[in-house]
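TICKET #2291
ISSUE: user wants both folds in one file
ATTACHMENT 1:
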Amino acid sequence: MPRPSISAVVVAVDYRLAPESSFPAPCNDGTTALRWVLTGGGGALPSPPATVFVMGDSAGGSVVAHHVAARLPSRVARLIALQPFAHSLRQNFVLNNKHIFKT
């Protein structure tokens, strides 16, 4: 039986961390990486992607992912936040008039 397939590219960004690099350095790194993907990855990708999801894990990664998605909202279909945000930062976030995170 043939296996189902999906055309997808997963890019993990090794963004700068504190305390060596302060905010917004991680968000700048994420935005640079997203722009690289959106232009086809300098020839590394077969073509620029039609749909982009941005994901962050834990408090720091989710905050960076949110800021990256907010900087290029017309290019990001959805934000996926795994174990999102520190308790003090919980609130509703909207991207392209869609709730992307709600507590």
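ATTACHMENT 2:
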Amino acid sequence: MNIKNVVGLVVAAAGLSACGGSDGGTSFDSLATRGDSLIEKYEVVELTPVGSMPTAGTASYEGVAGYFFSEAAYDAAESAADADVLSTVSLTANFSDSSIAGSLGNFKDREGVSVSGSVAIKDGQIMDNVFMADLDGSITAENETATVRGVTYGGFVGGTAEAVMGAIEADIIHGPSDVEGLYGEFIAERK
């Protein structure tokens, strides 16, 4: 997990708070505050030791995700001006059957463009202390709806999987020959 990019996305969330707006009770300010709190708490925390991972029951996680429309911008993320979009992330890990699922929603565009929709995190598998899942959904911005498909992968952190961090790699499909790459990361804490 590249913690530099996770730190970058949360710093971006803080800088984006000046853009204002709200959707479903989630504003830039609340995303920034939540993201800052999570990154401060988990930025130096190691992956959960495999032997300390829960093996039964479920856990719910909530947090913040940040996205970039170019891999170069994603790789170079250093400041608030770098993130293109923020959202909430909700996950449920089922440790009994080693699955993980959730959603990305409440999207906020850095330019103040209204973005609606949601992306499902589905068909996820937990392997030891890491996971991989599919992304599938749609988003609408400026009266244009696009399909989002991709993957997310990452790991559980803390002594007993108190949080999860992950990377996002997806395509935004506007049409058969109009595909845009989307890159990002998220951090979420057990509720």
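RESOLUTION: both attachments delivered.
EXTRA DETAIL ON ATTACHMENT 2: The chain has one domain: 3-190.
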